[in-house]
Write a structure and sequence with these properties.
Number of strands: 12
Order of helices and strands: EHEHEHEEHEEEEHEHHEEHHHHH
Largest sheet: 8 strands, mixed
Shape: globular
Strand order of the largest sheet: 3-2-1-4-10-6-11-9
Number of domains: 2
């Protein structure tokens, strides 16, 4: 029986996935199940994984490309550990990542997740920056404090730096996957809205997030802004409990901010009709945004 399942979904990342796998194999805590899920890569990922020759690796190569949501889901359904984490195929852990999070679960058995800070690095493993942290020592988050952490007001709750209680992931996963590319945010929202939900945050960075030119977030800022806007609107409609809690204003402010940012980017590129549609979408979530009304009217007048 495994205490922890680590899932590494991968696709055409043979130059980096080896480091991700090695960072798991070198953990100071070794009672884990490691699932490497290859989404029908066309590069030499299979050869890279096979060359590691470690019996703890369970390598599964799909017979066709199924996409990241289905690949993640495949791993969650196969997971046998009491706890679960998902590691990007271009990221990697520090040696004590698992044991430090597991110890916090033992200290706070009611926790739904243990997360923490992370480092941003480049393709050559050079340090860029540390993530934003909400505290200087280990701290628990519940209620409004947890929602603020979730939405990035006080810190960064990143799925790649999180160890989850698997039974709770199982409960919310099938519903969360309807959010598509917002899957991780949908999971965090559902976990946060569980009554008396508690998340533990460790401020020391023990996970390394790769930032490199192949990522859409680096190469295409407008595309990223569009994704954030679409996801914000989808989650607003997707999770009705958001609008039935005392945290509604926190969610509303976060989602409208993402949509407004996309609208302004479209405006600056001269795409006024599309900007107009974005601002109108924002106003449907919050009709009392005076500056957005002004932007919408300006788009309307200049597009006519």
């Amino acid at each position: 029986m495994f205490d922890i399942t680590i899932i590494i979904p991968t696709y055409n990342r043979s130059t980096l996935v080896g480091q991700a796998i090695k960072s798991v194999l070198s953990q100071s805590y070794d009672a884990f199940q490691l699932l490497v899920l290859d989404d029908y890569s066309s590069d030499d990922t299979c050869e890279v994984v096979s060359s590691l020759k470690d019996s703890r690796i369970q390598y599964i190569r799909h017979k066709c490309h199924i996409g990241f949501t289905a690949n993640w889901t495949y791993g969650v359904k196969l997971a046998a550990g009491k706890y679960l984490c998902i590691l990007g195929d271009d990221d990697y852990y520090d040696q004590n990542y698992l044991i430090n999070r597991l110890e916090l679960f033992h200290k706070y058995p009611a926790a739904v997740a243990v997360t923490g800070a992370f480092r941003c690095i480049d393709k050559e493993n050079r340090f860029i920056r540390n993530s934003k942290v909400p505290c200087n020592s280990v701290q628990t988050f519940t209620g409004q404090k947890l929602i603020k952490l979730l939405l990035g007001y006080t810190g960064e709750w990143f799925n790649g730096a999180t160890l989850y209680k698997r039974e709770l992931i199982d409960l919310c996963w099938d519903s969360a996957i309807r959010a598509g590319t917002a899957l991780d945010l949908a999971v965090h929202i559902q976990l946060s809205l569980i009554d008396e939900s508690l998340v533990v945050f460790r401020p020391e960075p023990e996970m390394n997030l790769r930032v490199h030119p192949e990522q859409e977030s680096v190469s295409n800022g407008l595309y990223l802004a569009e994704c954030a806007a679409i996801l914000a609107l989808y989650l607003w409609n997707f999770e009705p409990r958001i609008r039935k809690t005392e945290y509604i204003n926190l969610f509303r402010n976060c989602f409208t901010k993402d949509i407004n940012h996309f609208g302004r980017m479209l405006w600056y590129q001269g795409r006024r009709r599309e900007a107009q549609a974005a601002f109108l979408t924002e106003l449907r979530i919050d009709p009392f945004r005076f500056k957005t009304w002004l932007r919408y009217i300006r788009c309307l007048l200049l597009s006519s």
